[in-house]
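hi!! sorry for the late reply, been swamped w classes. u asked for the two structures so here they r. pasted raw, havent cleaned anything up. first the sequence of the first protein and right below it the tokens
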Amino acid sequence: MVASCGITLSDYDDAVLDGVSNLNLNKPAKALQDFNRAIEIDPTRANAYVGRGNTLSTLGRYKEALKDYDIAIEIDPKVANAYVNRGSAYSHLTQYEKAIADYEKGLELDPEIDDPPSFVKRLFSDDPPTDKGIRKHLEFIKQKVKEQSG
């Protein structure tokens, strides 16, 4: 149960929320443990794999992150966040065509995903998302591909 909120969470949800919290607090090693715990509890749900992939990406372990994003997409092909984050990992690995495809698929599934404010910020603010980071990066890597091929 979340303290003083009166909300009961499953062990899985608790582990995922711990992972998100630790990742946001710049504690990726702890976040990795939390997401691993969530996956041990229920390996059939996508969001722990996305969280672990995000943690691995934060640590610069992009190839490992790709595996988790692949699993998340296999479990639930409609998780836009998995495509966008996999696109980011591909971009870091200079696999731009794959990055472009994933960014476009993520934006197709959820046009609002383009850098929404963080969950905590959304809780305490009504500021609309202003920076269109995913679309900007998508255009940037499309230009890089064009320059490389031409």
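now the second protein. again sequence first, tokens right under
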Amino acid sequence: MDSLFAQPQKKPLADRMRPTRLSDFVGQETAVGERSPLRRMIEKDQLQSVLFYGPPGTGKTTLAQVIAHMTGDEFVAINAVSSGVPELRKLIAKAQELQRGGMGRTIVFIDEIHLFNKAQQDVLLPYVENGTIILIGATTENPFFEINSPLLSRMKVIRLEHLTADGIKKILERALTDKEKGYGSEGITVTAEALEALADFAGGDARVALNLLEQAEFMLPDGSKEITMDVLRSVAGNALQRYDKKKVIIITISFRLLLKVCAAVMPTLLCTIWPVCWKVERT
């Protein structure tokens, strides 16, 4: 009986912190900056089918949701992993019905679109071409190899890059201060060292950073509200050790490279300097 009255479970922090406006979108200035073609399309309400191509955690899904929120169009999201031709035909039929009833456009977001085979991609082609749906695809793979040329030619490819460490820190700081969706009302803080480690460890992936922050908050000792490096290590374990080791490896490789360069250059340098030094010493 208790389960009937259980509190609804919170969405993950990474999902709660998704922005709903372009002004809140962190990074990707080339893709969504003030003068970008995509931004102009959205602001002028002349959205065309687009394909977001980039690494995980760079904001592909979030950007699609921001576009849907700003345009007010019908928004349908599916994943190519769990969808096929029957699902595509159903959502296209619904889009046609809305279009006939003057109910506006339908934005179809397909995550991992590169996993659709040629036949599945071909189903979309005529409806993208005649404007029945506005297709937003997301892929981590090179679309010029994975997406059919006829479909790709009808979409604008927008490249999203890894977020910088500063961008990740901005997202984390927003999560710490946001009183509605983040930890602002709970007074959770992160030491400067731990914040730096989180931003670096995430590797440009905002989802990784927010997930680790959420796990660290859960692992805080009773009565404590400060996330330190010790708390991070208790959560990330060996993964954080690999991050620490990475710095050592980079330094070691750099030192070895320096030695190799010196070994290669030194004979030539000695051949050039030694006669001069010998001459000076004799005089």
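hope this helps!! also noticed smth abt the second:
The longest strand covers residues 74-79.
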